[in-house]
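User: Hi! I have a protein structure encoded as tokens and I'd like to know what sequence might fold into it. I'm fairly new to this, so please keep things simple.
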């Protein structure tokens, strides 16, 4: 017997039923804030599924995790609709409009021959979109604190370099790394040392700046290095 294929519309109705008076007690109790950890967890699990797919070619897990992310999007949209804020249709329409607006080289008369030009145009369009709008966050504070610290550091330094003052170039950061490392070598190791903590923070910021300049993903690099350590000592297959 062929398994029933559910549509996108079916899925939305399932979530609405779960949230209804005769639905699921757990689903009815959820709020944007209570679901916040779920969104972060599902995003991480989707990233893991992409890694597994890249290494093994197995796509089943990726398909499942993308469904879980979609569940979060639909759930938040249904809650917002109940609150009279916006609907799922508004979410879809808004992001579709954004993609058209930010790709004038595809949908309009703009030009972009390289990915670098695309990103430059993207940032300029974002800047234009914000003009005349009341900003709830400062330019640096709008970079979410929920991001992994290394990723956030690179983004903050990039925006500081663009909006406030030029940051160190590659050579200057490399020199600072050498200087900080020299100072660390002079420290007598002890637990929870405030001076050492500050030095390590400075070192990580210089690494973040180098990663920003060279367009490196610090999180992915460190993840890969940790995986190398696990593989070295446990001889377990990569997943």
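Assistant: Happy to help. Inverse folding works backwards from shape to sequence: for each of the 239 positions I chose a residue that suits the local structure. Here it is:
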């Amino acid at each position: 017997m062929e398994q029933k294929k559910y549509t996108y519309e079916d899925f939305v109705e399932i979530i609405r039923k779960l949230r209804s008076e005769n639905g699921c007690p757990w689903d009815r109790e959820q709020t944007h804030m209570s679901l916040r950890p779920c969104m972060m967890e599902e995003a991480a699990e989707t990233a893991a599924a992409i890694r597994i797919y890249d290494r093994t070619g197995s796509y089943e897990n990726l398909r499942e995790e993308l469904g879980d992310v979609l569940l979060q999007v639909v759930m938040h949209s249904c809650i917002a609709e109940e609150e009279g804020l916006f609907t799922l249709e508004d979410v879809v329409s808004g992001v579709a409009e954004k993609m058209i607006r930010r790709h004038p080289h595809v949908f309009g008369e703009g030009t972009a021959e390289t990915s670098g030009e695309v990103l430059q145009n993207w940032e300029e369009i974002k800047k234009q979109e914000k003009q005349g709008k009341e900003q709830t966050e400062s330019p640096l504070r709008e970079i979410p604190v929920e991001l992994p610290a290394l990723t956030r550091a690179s983004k903050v330094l990039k925006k500081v370099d663009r909006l406030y003052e030029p940051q160190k170039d590659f050579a200057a950061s490399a020199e600072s790394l050498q200087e900080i490392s020299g100072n660390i070598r002079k420290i007598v190791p002890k637990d929870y040392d405030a001076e050492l903590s500050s030095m390590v923070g400075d070192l990580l910021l210089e690494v973040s700046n180098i990663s920003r300049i060279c367009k490196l993903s610090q999180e992915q690099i460190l993840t890969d290095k940790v995986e190398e350590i696990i593989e070295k000592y446990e001889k377990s297959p990569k997943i």
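A useful reference point when you look it over: The mean pLDDT is 91. Feel free to ask if any position seems puzzling.
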